[in-house]
Amino acid sequence: MVSLQGNKVKLRALEKEDLDLLFELENNPSVWEISGTITPYSRDVLKLYLDNAHRDIYDVKQLRLVICTLNNESLGLIDLFDFDPKNKRAGIGVLINDKGDRNKGIGTESLEILCKYAFKTLQLKQLYANILEENERSIHLFKKLGFELVGTKKNWIFSEGVFKNELLFQKIFY
C-alpha cells in the first residue's frame, strides 16, 4: 500500500469536521469556473455529502481527500474524478485554500502522492487535468510533474461574461 504522507503534507479522508472547509471552498465563486458550480451549497447539502464520503471510489467514481500538514491542519482538497477502472484513467485536480500556502511545494507534494497512489494502488494507466489557459501556476505545476499538454478546448468555459480556453494535460504511466 502506498503511503499518503510526504515530507510536508499528508492526504486523508474527509471527516465531519471538514464541513467548514468544504463550505468555504464550495461557496467561493472564484473556484466555480473550474468546478462547474453555478449556485452556492448549503451546509445541509454538504453534511449529506460528508455522510456519504466513505463510499468506495469504484461506486461513486470519485475520491476526494483533504490535504493536511503533518500536524493535521487542513490546507485544501485534492480529487480523483471521472474514475474509469475499465480504461484505467481518472481526472485529477488540486486546490490549496489559502493563497499564502501556495508556491510552497504543498501542491507539488500532494499531486506526487496522489499520482503514486493512482498508479500503484488503483493501477491506473493515465491521469488527466483540465486547466484554464490563464492559470500559469497550475500549468507549471502539472508540467513539472510530467503531465503533457495534449489539447486545447477552445471557448470551453464561460465565466465573467467571456469564453475561456481550457487546456487538457495528460500523464501516462509506463
UniProtKB/TrEMBL annotation:
Gene3D superfamilies: 3.40.630.30. The keyword Transferase applies. InterPro entries: Acyl_CoA_acyltransferase (IPR016181), GNAT_dom (IPR000182). The keyword Transmembrane helix does not apply. Keywords: Transferase. PANTHER family: GNAT-FAMILY ACETYLTRANSFERASE (PTHR43415:SF3), SPERMIDINE N(1)-ACETYLTRANSFERASE (PTHR43415). This is GNAT family N-acetyltransferase.
